[in-house]
Amino acid sequence: EKNKILPEEAFFHRMLNDKKIISKKDLKENVLDIRKVYLYIAASVFFYMSSVWMPENRLVIYISYFFIIMTIINIIYFAANKYINNK
User: Is residue 9 part of a domain?
Assistant: First the structure.
């Protein structure tokens, strides 16, 4: 390209070859976070109310169920973790 608007090809190769390593602990702490319980509850209420307003859309109720399950998993995880740490 004569205007040189895009970066050099080596830039893209470097981006593709760089590996981002995510540990299992980092992933677990990202998904299972007590602050996200509030977000999950708000999302489940929003999607449930959306399913009430749009009863023909079945996907919205399943998304609501997903957030309810994530809320329950988070609460159980932190209750169990707190119980184990207090022993």
Answer: no
User: What DSSP letter does each residue of 9-70 carry, written as one string?
Assistant: HHHHHHHHH------HHHHHHHHS-TTHHHHHHHHHHHHHHHHHH-TT-HHHHHHHHHHHHH
Give the pLDDT confidence of 35-59 residue by residue, as tens digits: 788 888 999 999 999 999 998 888 9
| CA distances for 40 relative to 20, 21, 25, 53, 78, angstroms | 27, 27, 21, 20, 15
Per DSSP, the three-state class of 7 is coil
pLDDT in the model for residue 15: 67
SS3 83: helix
Residue 30's pLDDT is: 65
Q: Which of 32, 30, 78, 69 is nearest to 48 (CA)?
A: 69
Q: What is the number of domains present in the chain?
A: 1
Provide the domain limits for residue 55.
23-86
